[in-house]
Each structure stands twice: as structure tokens, then as C-alpha cells.
Amino acid sequence: xxxxxxxxxxxxxxxxxxxxxxxxxxxxxxxxxxxxxxxxxxxxxxxxxxxxxxxxxxxxxxxxxxxxxxxxxxxxxxxxxxxxxxxxxxxxxxxxxxxxxxxxxxxxxxxxxxxxxxxxxxxxxxxxxxxxxxxxxxxxxxxxxxxxxxxxxxxxxxxxxxxxxxxxxxxxxxxxxxxxxxxxxxxxxxxxxxxxxxxxxxxxxxxxxxxxxxxxxxxxxxxxxxxxxxxxxxxxxxxxxxxxxxxxxxxxxxxxxxxxxxxxxxxxxxxxxxxxxxxxxxxxxxxxxxxxxxxxxxxxxxxxx
Length: 305
Known about the structure:
Elements: E1 5-9, H1 13-25, E2 30-33, H2 54-57, E3 67-71, H3 76-83, E4 88-92, E5 101-105, E6 116-119, H4 128-137, E7 148-153, H5 164-175, E8 180-185, H6 191-201, E9 206-209, H7 219-225, E10 228-232, H8 236-242, E11 249-252, H9 259-270, E12 275-276, H10 291-301
Parallel strand pairs: 1-2, 1-3, 3-4, 4-5, 5-6, 7-8, 7-10, 8-9, 10-11, 11-12
Helix pairs in contact: 1-10, 4-7, 5-6
């Protein structure tokens, strides 16, 4: 299969989504799944395919793409290997070496340079079109009492899940100002914390999607129908995706977030795109922010496609 755009898909879903989200905005593209057989070690920093499994190396054959989109430190050397064969390179997040365009979150304090494009948050795959489709698909959510508050809950990156007491407290706080709650728990939330959240939400009308539910995930429907959105502060992806809505966005720190996550929160506050949960439920005006669309427009403006 020949395609002008290749998207290198890291095995980590959140990282892959950054490259895929940009590639999807550029039109037809080829997804190249990456997998390393190195026991989790980072690959060599120089341009190379070294460390990729034989299956992952198989798609790397001419004709080469005009443009390759990648994300994360592990995909960087692979993208630069393709760059050495004539492809333009667009890379998300910091990585070793130079790329034709580096898309870096403002919370990482990128320097000013012609080959750096700072964005608010991180690239993702949510679009206005997907939200409109989800609003139609999940129209039944409109029957829930307003204000409908979407509560998107993550958890510690490492550990045994979110503390149940913290999940319950957060659920009770949101239920206190919501007409109804549209809650989604992630893999990192954990079963005990999800159950504690369910108990805290029981006094108000709500929908709760538990991690691993076999039913269709209503995540985009929750975003599409929310009058306000509350996102736990650990999730760069969910905070960034929520920017695509026009709803007031509130950040709920879980405690223990690192420097980069706290810097992300501050960058959202400074841009007027979010406020701390302590300021909820006071509404504030904000327009949807489509940073991925801006990246795609920049690529086209540079004449790379």
C-alpha cells in the first residue's frame, strides 16, 4: 500500500493517538504499528529501526512517504530514519534529535524556533465531526436533568488504582452541583474506586461507564452532551480532548501529579481554557480549541503535502 502520509503508532494508546490524530486530519494515510523486542528499553537515539520486532520492520520498504507523523521518544529514531530517506518529519512530544516540525505542549516550555509548534495540551483524535456524530448517537442523554456534568476520572500512572475515598469525595463534590452526572472511569481508576464513585453518585441521576464494560463506551457522547466537564488532573489526553467542547472545563487534581502535569494545569488556566475544580460550578465562557486542526493547517501551509 502506497500513501503520502505514514503515522507511526506507538504501542501506548495515548502516545499513538497524538500521531494518529494529526494524520487523520491530513487525509488518507497509512498506519504503521510499532513494537519493540527490547524488554521495554528505549531504542538507540540515532535514526534507526534497531530494536523493532521483525513484524514491525516489515512495512518499511520503498516507496517512502512524503510525510511521517510520530509521537514519543521511542518513535523518534524511526521517524528520523524515514527522514533520512526523504520524508518530512512531524513529531509530537520531546525526543532526541531534530525534526522538520516538533509539536510540543506549552507545559513543556518549548523554545521559540521555526521548527517548533507549541500547542495547548497534547494532540488527540477527537474532532468536531466526531462530537456531532456522538451527540446524535447518544441523544437519549438529553433526557437527563441539566446541568449535565461530565466527570472523566483517571488515576495514578503507577500503583493499585485511585484511592476509593478520593473517588467518593470527588463524586460527591460533583454531584453537589450537577443536575445529573455523566461519569467515565478509566483503567487506572480501579474497581474499588469505581464502586466508591458509583455510591457517591447514587443520590443524583447519572450514567457511569466502568472500565471493561462490554457496552459501547459513551465517552464522546458524554463530552458532546455535557454542560460542564470535570477531568482528573492526571490525564493529559482527557484534558486535551475536552478542549474540543465549548463547555466550561474544570481540573480536579488528585494529588501527587508531577511537575509536567501541574505545568499543564497552569497553562490551561493561563489561556482561559480551564479553571480549578475549587471554582466550580461558576460558569465561564470559552470557545472550543482545535489545536490538532491548527497543526494540520500549518503542515499544509508549509507545502509538505
